Amino acid sequence: MKAIVVNKPGGPEVLAYHESPDPIPGSHQLLVRVAAAGVNFIDIYQREGLYPMPLPYTPGLEGAGIVVDVGASVATFAPGDQVAWAGMLGSYADMIALDADAAVAIPEGVSLEHAAQAMLQGMTAHYLVTSVWDIQPGQTALVHAAAGGVGLLLCQMITARGGQVIGTVSTDAKATAARAAGASHIIRYDTEDVSERVREIVKEGVDVVYDGVGRDTFMESLKSLRPRGMVALFGQSSGPVQAFDPQLLNQGGSLIMTRPSLAHFTATPGELQWRASEVLGSLASGSIHFALAHRYPLNEAAAAHAALKARTTSGKLILIP
Prior knowledge:
alpha/beta; 6-stranded parallel β-sheet
């Protein structure tokens, strides 16, 4: 099969496209032909060495495809089934051996490409608004990068739960996208002071900040919170947050900071199935929408990484084997 292989940490150029051995499924695994793989910031962190990886490896934690074969102990899936997954390394390839417990059946009405877009970012937005900070009607959230893949989903999910969204963006086109997804207020972080504008909109500050940007936004996130508010730092697209004095949390009003990860919120098969079924079910019903920014052939994975790293896209990037 064809696959992307990383032999050393580095820039997009280390994403090598060549022949790899076909995977052999274990007794509790599925052999899946990949129809589409999602491209995510965690793939970049791993490729750069920010998250150390055993070398060599095939990147990609998310995808969707068709079951080709099943292990001897698998009773939940059969060849021909359409499945999606998140959290299983090796998705940038023609085929993947996938733990059956990590696979989710794709409901009728959801295409393979849509399912590949939805899993990682959809479940990330889901755990952020349900389990990290349970959004209630009347609460206000600041969403950084509101026109990004997760940002657009957060705008939709927060609004659906009766919350209000203040979104930060860098272009007029991204402002339009965030408003269409439900953001009530837009802040242009490239020309405006974020925390000052937040205080003009909500004098006491927001209840929660969803920050996937990291270094460039973190201090503004803290300054935007009401007393006892929370900043959920779920990513670091601009780089890791620099060391800071925890006394700042006290000075801001007993603020709460958390650094959550999807893996900890899909740690059991039951929780994974719950989150995935709600996300894919909402996609099937049309109650949430996923914006596709671009499709790339698998052999153009480097271009996809460069585009995502530049933060010039709005919506999801996927690779097509």
